[in-house]
Design brief:
Number of domains: 1
Radius of gyration: 21 Å
Largest sheet: none
Helix content: over 70%
Structural class: mainly alpha
Strand content: under 5%
Length: 412
């Protein structure tokens, strides 16, 4: 039986790395307003900022074009990656289940450490836990995958409807736990938005992260995130199983159709979603969830298909290589975005948090991401994997992999 090893660089598909790189940018645009503590500021504090009028327009832009769309894209890519891991093992005469579960357990540990010690907005732990369910769908038909995915993506509407009728909040236990730890450490509604900026020691940061972990549980439960992510995983699995990324030329008409529907239907619905978000959900939680379901997934797929069409038309553009390199180091770059955010905005670093508006926050994102593109390209010129990817692979496969790039004159 041939030994199972990770996908080689020569077997990688550039378009997948490009999409991962783009997803990393979108995720940073969505996450950094929390790192800068802008999200936690009161309406009066936001109104007093010098950039308040520009920030208002930018909030609209982010809700229309960013919110939810890039985590949709990232989740689809995770599903594709799952298929590639399992298929790689199956081709070499191994079921791959042991390797897959080892990989998920390690990702769960990484996610837990990220959640508890760096940033409360971690998504990796949820990905790992839901990823462990994916082998259950390994032998399911293509039609079955898409039907299950559709049910999972729509099911949050049912859950929110039932919770609304019963007048209950499913995340209430997590809310109580959050405020228990807040009261334990002296975190109040008044100092909540400034706590991390004023934290001069890591102990203070860690206290906020403990209650923040419970906030993350609230977000997952209130947003029915587990149903959504698993549904997107299954669509990604379908894409991977049918190798749609490997024969994009044959799917150009379908790609154009998705983009057309995304522009004509998804974009107006996304504007409606942004209006609902800016007006604090005037049609209630159920109405907002309906709009989310109808807009966000379609826009995420539109981004995926639109980038594929642009890639097919202009494959020789150098920009693809620069987008692909951070995508090849997605885990390292995702975690490093959090570390950089801590350094820039928290009191244990530069302490910029709660002092700058949304537009400056997003300008910082562009600078950070641009730096990651350059750093990733330089790193992959010398090394085969990102540092965290290297450690993850070795622990997954239980063997040593050379980090230094053995190929002369190689470039990412």
């Amino acid at each position: 039986m041939e030994q199972v090893v990770p996908v080689k660089s020569s077997e990688r598909y550039v378009i997948l790395d490009v999409l991962r790189g783009l997803a990393l940018l979108g995720i940073a645009l969505a996450n950094y307003p929390e790192f800068s503590l802008y999200t936690f500021q009161s309406p009066s504090a936001i109104a007093q900022m010098s950039t308040s009028s520009v920030d208002y327009l930018l909030r609209w832009f982010l809700l229309v074009f960013v919110d939810g769309k890039f985590y949709t894209l990232f989740s689809l890519l995770f599903g594709i990656g799952f298929f590639m891991i399992m298929n790689n093992a199956a081709r070499k005469g191994n079921s791959g289940m042991l390797i897959f579960y080892r990989r998920m357990i390690l990702l769960m540990i990484i996610g837990f450490l990220h959640l508890m010690f760096i940033w409360s907005g971690d998504i990796l732990m949820l990905y790992a836990l839901l990823g462990m369910l994916l082998p259950l769908f390994w032998r399911m038909s293509n039609r079955g995958l898409l039907v299950c995915a559709g049910i999972l993506l729509v099911f949050p509407i049912v859950v929110d409807g039932m919770a609304s009728l019963a007048q209950i909040r499913l995340a209430e236990p997590a809310v109580r736990q959050q405020w228990y730890y807040c009261s334990l450490y002296g975190i109040t509604e008044q100092n909540f938005g400034y706590w991390l900026r004023d934290a001069s020691t890591y102990e203070k940061v860690f206290q906020f992260l403990i209650q923040g972990a419970w906030v993350r549980v609230q977000e997952f439960v209130d947003g029915n995130r587990y149903f959504k992510v698993l549904g997107l995983f299954l669509i990604g699995f379908y894409i991977g199983r049918n190798r749609l990324y490997a024969c994009l030329d044959q799917w150009q008409d379908k790609l154009r159709l998705v983009v057309r529907y995304g522009v004509l239907v998804g974009l107006p619905l996304s504007v409606l979603y942004a209006w609902s978000g800016m007006k604090n959900h005037p049609w209630g939680t159920v109405g907002h969830t309906v709009i989310y379901t109808a807009s966000v997934y379609l826009m995420g797929l539109t981004y995926l298909c639109g980038v594929c069409l642009l890639y097919l038309k202009w494959k020789d553009l150098k920009c693809w290589r620069y987008l692909a390199t951070p995508g090849r180091m997605a885990l390292t770059n995702y975690i490093s975005q959090s570390v950089i955010g801590m350094f820039l905005f928290y009191g244990i670093g530069l302490g910029w948090g709660a002092q700058i508006g949304l537009c400056y926050t997003e300008l910082i994102v562009l600078f950070v991401y641009g730096s990651q593109m350059v750093a990733s390209r330089l790193w992959l010129t010398l090394f085969q994997f990102g540092p965290l990817e290297w450690i993850w692979r070795m622990l997954t496969y239980g063997r040593w992999f050379h980090l230094v790039n053995q190929q002369k004159n190689s470039s990412p």
